[in-house]
Amino acid sequence: MFRPSSLARAVPRARAFASTAAAQSAIRRVAVIGGGQMGSGIAQVAAAHKHDVTLVDVSQEALERGKGYMAKSLGRVAKKKFPEDAQAQSRFVEEVLGRVSLSTDLKAAAGSAGLVIEAAVENIKLKQELFAGLAAAAPEDAILASNTSSLPIARIAAPLSAERKRRMIGLHFFNPVPQMKLVEVVRTDEAEQQVVDDAVAFVKGIGKVPAVCKDTPGFIVNRLLLPYTMEAVRLLERDVASPRDIDTAMKLGAGYPMGPFELCDYVGLDTIKFIVDGWHKEGQGLAGDKLFAPSAKLDELVKKGHLGVKTGRGFYEY
Ligand code: 3HC
Q1: Which protein residue's CA is at the shortest distance from atom 51 of ligand 1?
Q2: Where is each 3-hydroxyacyl-CoA dehydrogenase C-terminal domain found (predicted)?
Q3: Does residue 80 line the site of ligand 1, with CB under 6 A?
């Protein structure tokens, strides 16, 4: 069974967010669409920085699951914040959770939000429909943002009016959201500078570090991370080394906190396959690029339902 190596701890990492800092941006109310790991992480961090947050999903069950992710993660943060004080820990968790409302009513949630962040499944049609609904419901001056990891923001925004397109950007968070400091702020050609500036202020206000970039495939991090990850899978396919040895090599030889196979399992093999296949098949300027060719090994694991940590088996067993 795989356990994260204690050697990974030697690598300097971003500190957990400072939950007491007041939000610096003018945005008060945030709606987060999608209660999965990413959406609940975004909702948690925004609420911990004094925003009123509505977490939206299609069912009460999905929302309760999202609340469970937040409670667990906040528990870890609280233990570090108040190491000797169990009461202060639970007060902190309750206070942050108290700022997150759960809702299945997308329009009502968007109707009062200054910022809407979509973190639903990576399906272009679904996202376009979602944003059409959000555009109809959100205040005119609200910022609309997608947390997509691989779909072009301009394509998601394609059905929207010119005015809405000017207020639509990407806000790409990283897993685990409460721990990872970076947020990519993705600007389309249509986005107004003021919207980008407001998004940057929001990101700083929730204790994260923004990196502004253009709307190109993979933005910055995934554009560099995916070729690296796929090369690791091809090393395995060519039987150059085992997943364990490749992971050890990259952690101890390159200083990465996780090796590529640990990271694949952590992010989810279905997510990795979705990104790679999308770029390979659909083009987006990367069509046919060998860096993004499908991998038989990855396809086989996904077909068997071995998606990583979340299914108990990926490249490793858990
Ligand atoms: N909530 C709150 N805190 C968390 C957390 C969570 N869900 N998960 C981890 N942490 C905190 C821990 O409390 C601990 O804090 P401390 O250092 O202040 O004590 C710290 O993170 C380290 O956690 P652990 O000691 O439990 O475990 P590790 O040392 O093995 O670190 C890790 C875990 C932070 C996940 C680290 O391995 C890491 O940084 N891995 C790389 C993650 C990465 O690359 N993410 C990006 C993926 S790509 C992506 O998301 C883009 C998408 O589009 C695909």
Answers
A1: 174
A2: 218-318
A3: yes
What integer is the mean pLDDT of 110-127? 95
Residue 214 CB–ligand 1 contact under 6 Å: no
Q: Quick: pLDDT tens for 242-278.
A: 999 999 999 999 999 999 999 999 999 999 999 998 8
Take atom 36 of ligand 1 and give the residue whose Cα is closest: 257
How far is residue 25 CA from its own chain's centroid? Answer: 21
Q: Which amino acid is at 268?
A: G
- Ligand 1 center to residue 121 CA distance, Å? 22
**Do residues 258 and 287 touch, judged by C-beta distance below 8 A?**
no
What percent of the chain clears pLDDT 90, i.e. is strictly above it? 83
The rounded mean pLDDT for the chain is 91
pLDDT of residue 277: 87
- Is 222 part of the annotated catalytic residue set? yes
User: With a 6 A CB cut-off, is 257 part of the ligand 1 pocket?
Assistant: yes
Q: List domains and CATH numbers for the chain.
A: 22-214 (3.40.50.720), 222-311 (1.10.1040.10)
8 versus 214: the higher-pLDDT residue is 214
* Spatial distance between the Cα atoms of 176 and 173, rounded to a whole number of angstroms: 9
Cβ–ligand 1 contact at 36 (below 6 Å): no
In the chain, the percentage of residues whose pLDDT exceeds 70 is 90
Residue nearest to atom 44 of ligand 1 (CA): 263
Supply the pTM of this predicted model: 0.89
Does residue 149's CB lie within 6 angstroms of at least one atom of ligand 1? Answer: yes
DSSP one-letter string for 126-177 = HHHHHHHHHHHHS-TT-EEEE--SSS-HHHHHTTS-HHHHHTEEEEE--SST
- The arithmetic mean of pLDDT across residues 24-43, rounded, is 92
Ligand 1 mean position to 185 CA, how many Å?
A: 21
Ligand 1 centroid–CA 120 distance in Å is 21
